[in-house]
Design a protein that fits this description.
This protein has 243 residues and is an alpha/beta fold. 42% of the residues lie in helices and 15% in strands. It has a single domain, classed as 3-Layer(aba) Sandwich (Rossmann fold). It contains 9 helices and 6 strands. Helix 1 crosses helix 2 and helix 3 runs antiparallel to helix 6.
Amino acid sequence: MWKLLTPAFSSSHRQVLFDYVGSGSSDARAFDAHRYGSLQGYAQDLIEVCDALGLSHNVTFVGHSVSCSIGILASIQRPELFSQMILVGPSPCFLNAPPDYIGGFEPEDLEELLELMDQNYIGWAQYFAPLVAGSGSDHPLTSQLSGSFCSTDPVMARLFAQVTFFSDIRKDLGRCTTPCLILQHQRDALVPLLVGEYLKAHLKDSLLKIMDVTGHCAHMSHPNLVAEIIHQYLSRIDDFVLP
């Protein structure tokens, strides 16, 4: 997952990009199934990264998908640490809980995804990547995502998927006092539009920007668009119009 911390959105200030334990270039030896059996373990990692770098305040957090939930949990634990949060494609819960909340999936849908991971991990990656990318199987972004999935240890990926899909932080949203910008994809197979509206209603100091984008990874498919929106938000440019 993708995330960025920076005391200011400026080339003259420090920017930090890191991988969660179990993904990317992280040290697999640090993986602990108990610690990472919930999003709180990852939220603690985020706080520890800030502490290790001497960041005590005025941090801007940029997260994608479940990283947004991790950032929100970290901000609740250490509200003085973060000045604002940029949430790209966030979802506090991927499960439907009618009539009050539609997260996009029924429990059996997600159980089938996890079962496919157990039985045929490569097949799961090839199936899931186009959903995330919002494009065909031959699209470069789909191939990039599929390759990223396949390069991750299946055991670690399976636990992370379980935690991601079945976590529910809706009850925690009201405790978040950090200003948030919610970047919602217009057409996202993983996160319905109603989720963005739900977050805006339940995060006290939040703004919602709906991007005319297909897929779940605008920071990869439309990086210039995402960068410009973030720049406008952090600069508080007058013509930053929100729906």
